[in-house]
Amino acid sequence: MIGDMYPAGAGGWIEVVCGVMFSGKSEELIRRVRRALIAKKRVQVFKSHLDERYAGLYHVSSHDGRTVEAVPVDSPEQISRELLPATQVVAIDEAQFLPIGIVALATDLAASGRRVILAGTDTDFRGEPFGPMPQLLAVAEQVDKLHAICVLCGNPASRNQRLIGGKPARYDSPTIMVGGDESYEARCRSCHSVPRRDEDQVRLL
Ligand code: ADP
Ligand code: ZN
């Protein structure tokens, strides 16, 4: 089973759970949080305020409906302000939406002896590195990359397919769309489609 690698007394460390949407990152974060609570650790859970799916802002929610209370934040400073001195485990979901300062915060929290668990989508809809995720992966002691199932072919999915009006979103659409009519599918590399303007031109030639 993934996770739970570090023994008690090992000092602080950073774990990252990454992968596409629907790959089970929130489920895995919640599983680790639940097990930390069973171990009687003091846990605080945060998530980017940009993710509002299912149970609402104040819960880490997984697609199977299980929830753990989480505080919505939009900056590392806010996490610092909310942090209680006695907290031993800090879990942060949707880390890809947070500013790059999350890397320094995670590092400081680990240096102070805390276990830091971050979950986030490591690539954007284009299949390119998303926000602070590359740096978080680099500084973490433990990285788990999860996969969903490609909705078109059934192979492991490693890409977030953005659809706008049912059609693949173009490469130049914004990385973060708020309140748009877009939807997402998990897809494998070969079923993933991100039309570029220059591809249209190639087709015209
Ligand atoms: P994430 O946080 O990575 O977006 P969640 O933990 O919220 O993922 O949800 C994972 C759950 O989503 C799976 O257990 C499964 O029930 C469901 N699911 C829906 N679509 C897919 C898919 N294409 N591939 C895998 N799981 C999917
Ligand atoms: Zn596929």
Features of the shown structure:
23% helix; single chain; 27% strand; binds adenosine-5'-diphosphate; Rossmann fold; alpha/beta
Short description:
The protein has 205 residues and is of the alpha/beta class. It has a domain at 8-147: Rossmann fold (3-Layer(aba) Sandwich), CATH 3.40.50.
Structural features, described:
The chain is about 25% helix and about 25% strand. The strands form 4 sheets. It has a 6-stranded parallel β-sheet with strand order 5-2-6-7-1-8, with helices on both faces. It has about 200 residues and is α/β, with parallel strands linked by helices. β6, α3 and β7 form a beta-alpha-beta unit. The longest helix is centred in the N-terminal third of the chain and has 14 residues, at about 25-40. The protein starts with 12 loop residues before the first strand and ends with a helix. Adenosine-5'-diphosphate (ADP) binds near residues 21, 24, 26 and 149. Zinc ion binds next to loops.
